[in-house]
Design brief:
alpha+beta; 2 domains; 3-stranded antiparallel sheet; 3 helices; disordered N terminus
Length: 118
């Protein structure tokens, strides 16, 4: 939101319509853009985004939140750290996937790292 839009919307969160908005940062060149954040629902947006992302009245209805409902949302657990073996498996699968994508791009046969065809 520009300064004129700030006063127009009174710095209301487009997603939850809360007034707990803070300025996260401003552009290095004064007045080019501002990044805002809602302390209630953690939505963040740039002043240069389209109105459907910055104007509470134009924000898409399916994505709106009610501040009173936020406490009812389930807490998403953190992902535990991987051990060395699991990390290796992830890298191995990523390698296979990259081979697969490259083969699709080249339209050639796909080989596993152990030499067998897929």
């Amino acid at each position: 939101m520009s300064r004129s839009e700030d006063s127009k919307h009174g710095l209301v969160c487009p997603r939850c319509r809360s007034g707990t908005i803070e300025v996260l940062t401003n552009s290095p060149v004064e007045g080019v853009w501002t990044i805002y954040s809602c302390k209630t629902c953690l939505y963040a947006w740039r002043s240069t985004e389209p109105e459907e992302n910055t104007d509470p009245d134009k924000y898409p209805e399916p994505f709106r939140l009610k501040p009173e409902d936020l406490a009812k949302f389930p807490v998403v657990p953190t992902i535990p750290p991987c051990d060395g073996v699991e990390t290796y498996r992830v890298y191995y699968m990523v390698g296979l996937f990259e081979q697969f994508l490259a083969a699709l791009h080249r339209k050639k046969s796909i080989r596993r790292t152990d030499g067998q065809s897929l």
